Amino acid sequence: MNDSLLPISKVANTGAEKRAISYANTIFNLFDSVLSTKQPADRVIANYFREHKKHGSKDRRVIRESLFGLFRWWGWIQQLGNHKQEDIFFSMLASAAQLENHPWGDIRDGWLAFSQHCEVLTPLPVPTSESVSDKLLAFQQFSNIHTTSIDQLLPDWFWQHCIIESEVEKQLFIQAMSTRPPIWARAQQASRHVVLQKLSRDNVEASGSEFFDDTINLGHNSINLNQVAAYTEGYLEIQDLASQVIGQMCAPQANSEWWDACSGAGGKSLQLLSLMQQAGIEGNIIASDIRTNALNELLKRAKRAHFKHISITPWKTELLPVKADYFDGVLVDAPCSCTGTWRRNPDMRWIDDVSAITEKPELQLDILKRSAEAVKMGGALLYATCSLTEIENQSVVNAFLKANTQFELECLTHPFTGESTTMLTVWPQQADTDGMFVVKMRRKC
Length: 445
Fold this sequence. Notes:
Blueprint: H1 15-37, H2 41-51, H3 57-72, H4 74-77, H5 86-100, H6 105-113, H7 132-143, H8 156-161, H9 167-177, E1 184-187, H10 192-201, E2 207-208, E3 215-217, H11 229-232, E4 236-238, H12 241-250, E5 256-260, H13 267-278, E6 283-287, H14 292-304, E7 310-312, E8 327-333, H15 348-351, H16 355-358, H17 361-372, E9 375-385, H18 394-403, E10 407-409, E11 412-413, E12 420-421, E13 424-426, H19 428-431, E14 436-443
Helix pairs in contact: 1-2, 1-3, 1-6, 3-5, 5-6, 12-13, 17-18
């Protein structure tokens, strides 16, 4: 992380103002480091807390939520000016705290008192609701910038590749992208009822979901999973609800052989095994990835879950790492721009550029073509991304089908809307999730 500090000339007169300056310096250092190095904010802040053990839980919360608040509203806040100027950065911090409705009012007021907008100290315009439209009005009152719009909360290049025709749906989408989704998880090795009871004994608030029988909603509170028995004993696996849709669409059958071609740390591989277990059937899964560290993490997670019917085969060369014409099902969760995860990682929408989208389709199509060779006659091929852009999703699938006529699309039922479709997109506003895309193809016999 960079060691740059905000050049502060302000003099603190109270304890709250001293804390406000101290927090501002730390947050500026982290924020500037993310922008300059283009490293993910969660990685930057994790490294910082690992190196600075002095911060207690409250300090960590103020620092973390203020940092991510700056990125969440950066489309507006950046219009205040250069963040490296003292008065302007204090205005940015005060505005982010205002828009996020942070509870540390004394710190927010300290930031405001040192800002270029100190004249609006009494009263600070506060959004009348959590609606993004009301937050826009509050920001315009605070900044006196009336050219701001809700579209600006996402970069211009994103809108060039994600076209939403309905203005109502577009506003709902932006509203969702301006809030944090809950932590979603799955029950495994036991029913959801049993796992919820285990969580309750550890004083972890959780609830079920109407969509899938094993889904668990853990809310928005920070949880130390290593202190939660349900997790350490393998009964709970963290996985966003949108990601869970992919495994559900796979619908593994009895005694089937599956290949997770881009498994990463194996969330969907574990889900497939869990679905088999819930159905009282058996099957085997081979997981592959070019990253050996990710595959090692998968093995750790499988061991914690007591799953045995899983093995790993790394992609070491361009050659297929598994048997051709062999698998009942192949899942290609392709590397992508990850625009569907921007709710959890608001910094990525500002440190990436359009190349994060435009450079992926060629690779995605290549991986899909290679992986398809492993599907046997009558077998299923699923293509998925956590992107919301057409060129990474529908365009890749259409190009693949044009060149591989032995595959055909299957119709899927959208679990959140009931819609029947061959190209299934999970939008964040539909069930308070990340964004995902999935299609299911069948190799003709």
